[in-house]
Amino acid sequence: MDNKILAGWLALVVLLATTGCLNKTENSGVQGFFTKNGIIVKSGREAAVAEVHIRVNEQDQAVSARSMGKNTVLLPLNWQAGDNYQVIFDKEKWNSAAPGKPAAWLSAVVPTGELEAMPTINQWAVEVNEGVAVAPDGQFVAVASFDHTVYLFDRSGKKIWDYRVPSGMPVSVAFSADGSIVLAGESSSDGKLYAFDRLTGKILWDYAFAADIGKGMSAQWSNRPNVRSLVVNGDAVIAAGQHRQRVVEKNGERSLILYPTQSVIIAFDIKTGQKRWRYPENETMDTGVSKIVVSADGEKVAFGNQSWSPAEKYPDGGIRVLNGGTGKMAAFFQASVINPYFAWVGIHEGIDISANGRYLAIFASDNQAMLFDLGKVNMAETGQAMEPEWIRQVSKVHAVGGVPVYASGSAARVTDEGKLYFMTSNTFVADKTAASAPPFLHPDSATLFSYNKNGELLWRWQTEGGVGKVRFSADNRFMVAAVYHNYISQSNSRAGIYCFDLRAEGPDSLAWFYPVEGVASVADIAADGTTIAGCEAPIRMKGDTVTGQHRLHILQ
User: Fold this and answer.
1) Is pLDDT above 70 for 24?
2) Residue 405 vs residues 323, 366, 398, 486: alpha-carbon distances, Å
3) Which of 28, 201, 330, 417 has the least CB density, counted as fewest CB within 10 Å?
4) pTM score, two decimals?
5) Which residues of 402-422 are buried (b: 16+ CB within 10 A; e: fewer)?
6) In Å, what is the CA distance from 58 to each residue of 54, 55, 85, 421?
């Protein structure tokens, strides 16, 4: 893309993201932005953070300003729509009435490399698998990029270091609890997990999961040994290595695609890489693990099984709660297929544990939603059977022109009080075979549902396009989602990063939408709810025209 065109497009994005939330006084170099975390003010000259003062409705207010980079500070406060705010920064004044909703403040847009292949808009999913993680305090952003590189940036977009994976592709990243270590999992013949020093990029330790699940040389990243799920648990990191293969079996005139899988979960000391425990202790699971969750105190670790293939010992839909200290299985539940259209049930992104460890939420691929009360589980025992408090069919199979379709279950979230959020993703044909996409959308596709702890629906909200991974701030107030193209209308007009403020209800919970030129493949939010980062990928439109670039967007 021509530099002038790129500069113009970025200016348009900033204008769209800040419409109604930018004001500056006459002859003043100070600008202000009402964001979800307060007011960001920017001076045209060098100025000290201590030189910032604020008045609300003509009354002085004490606010501890935070530096956000050169000439920019954040005034963390819960501003109220309609109130008047006056900021004195660098001895100049800026004033404005607060808008109805916050805006996205663009901190940086950073190119992250060249794609080897580009997604096409007529496919049901984006062909780019990446990972992005924001440090707990919002100061740094790590990217597991499709261009075989792990990057670390500060929140202003300055690159701190990068590491090119020798013979694979990074697919997941995370930060240690104190932000001093960057963890990255790769897809390769070895399936390595790396721990990097955040300051220098030096590898502190690594581990090859191929020793547990076997080597693999497939050209497809998802069919090689990989570490897609990792979670930090205090001074430990818990990671799942899995090796999935693709097998096509003939069943008369139909082809059945199977994915025989081997997986294992290992807990490591985050500083030394020393193993603390392994699950299963002496074997591998004959299915996959897409996401691991852990309670805030580290005592409870949970995961679900999925590979969409028959398994003898660890079938899809298995839900396990492990003792976070020992790795022993404390409790177990096997979800059953309840719809005749499905041969098995898988749990992908749809699992979450409340921070206090009380509740476990499940949202299976066939749209079964479940809530477990883990207060009934004795973590000192092993092998207990647990039962859900309730099971709900969030969305049902819907026949369109005689073709049965469903909206795949995706994300799950549960709060300490038992409030739940479930989000569906793409539309698929429900026919017991491999997932395939029809030329129309299910009425519940890409929809966010909210339930109370009794299983009663509170509200629903629907977007356009497919939904990538969904992430939440630690206090459950903010939710971010990367949304890519609408493959039915072949439009990416609503592709981008969505931020929800879940203090509101239903449609009012959408705080802002930040558009990208291509499609948004993944996004994350800092634990403290400040910095948001998302990856954009280019996409090939009708007429073989490529739009968008491979880059990172950092927002406040």
Assistant:
1) no
2) 38, 11, 5, 16
3) 417
4) 0.89
5) eebbbbbbbbbbbbeebbbbb
6) 9, 5, 8, 40
